[in-house]
Amino acid sequence: MSHSHDFVLAEQTHQFVRSQKWEVAVLPFGATEPHNFHMPYGTDNFQVEEIGNRVCEQAFRHGAKVLLLPAIPFGVNTNHLKIPGGLASAVAGLLGLAPDAGTAVGPIGIASETGRVLRAPLVSQLIFVGILSVNLAVLNVLPFPPLDGGRIAVVVVEAIRRRRLPAEREALVYLTGFMVLIFIAVRCIV
What we know:
Elements: H1 14-19, E1 24-26, E2 29-31, H2 43-61, E3 66-68, E4 72-74, H3 87-95, H4 107-117, H5 122-140, H6 148-161, H7 167-189
Parallel strand pairs: 1-3, 2-4
Helix pairs in contact: 3-5
């Protein structure tokens, strides 16, 4: 089964891909953005796909075990916010970056948005999951007592002092932080 596109993942079976010893995988990234009125949004993707195809074909012909992965369309253009129901507007709402602050959502809104994104293409789903994961990770490591970052802060304080905090004092720190967190949540809802 040797033909000129053995290096293109999208044209191969799982069995063929597993049977090869790949040396390099090429992952093209292309911006998805407006190019005035005369060119499509995917122009950059078309270009990187063609460049990747030509480079991998030459490398493959010279004996390299190279695999061309499907291009990832990526956009950071604020014009995406104007596309009704687009992923960018959903993510902007989750991050609190939307022009209308009322679009920021909590856990129920995130669940609803997840359901909507599940009907989008796989790349959109992966971007959504990635942004949501990073967002949660950043919030979780904030040095605030009920969060993991609060525990890290307590451990750092104990390391600096070279002794543990008394259990009652540590519990009070976490309880106070938890109460503040609940107060903030209630204030945001009301």
